[in-house]
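QA checklist item 7 of 12: single-chain prediction sanity check.
[x] sequence parsed
[x] length recorded as 211
[x] structure emitted
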Amino acid sequence: MSANYYRFNKLPNGVGILFWSVLASGFMLGCFSTSVYKFQSQPTEASVYYVNGAERNLIGVTPIDYTKAALPADAPFTLIFEKTGYESREISVSPTDNSQTTIRAVLKAAKEPIADATTKRVRSVLRRIFEIQELTSRQRYADALAGLNKLEEEEPNVAEIYSMKGSIYLMLNDPSQTRAQWEKALKIDPTLDTLRERLKKLPTTAKVGNP
């Protein structure tokens, strides 16, 4: 009989039972420790969905430690990572026997929808036209024309620019320039019926003196 065995048997009963409990717990933990998927994303706080046919089941928000037993173990499955402001990412996962598997998705920032970009541009143009109208109301015609010329370089297909330029030239007693600008406006937007009527009534020559 070995000395180690002898020493163990000399331990009090309670200590011996505790020893065997700790040993057994360690053995069981080693044999039956839970295998996990570690779901990560860049940026973090992305929603992770398990795709099951036509259904999407939310797993959680990254970073996530998720037990493998809750997902298919014998066939590939699909995950979707989503975060507001970013393009969603679909990943196919093949199960493994590893105790830990890391699935990481890098999300790209979503492109601004074309409709939203166009709306912002239109609003910007209208805001600048309004500012130019303020200059016109204060009879700062040269500044107003300079602003419209700059805006025309950036947005050459906006009928309102030429309509306003024509109106300013009319106030400057320059009907030839007025006609040229209004005709440009109507070429871009033929639906400006009121402007077309004003063009018909436009005199062909300038009046004597300033308005």
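[x] summary fact logged: The first strand starts at residue 36 and ends at 42.
[ ] second reviewer sign-off
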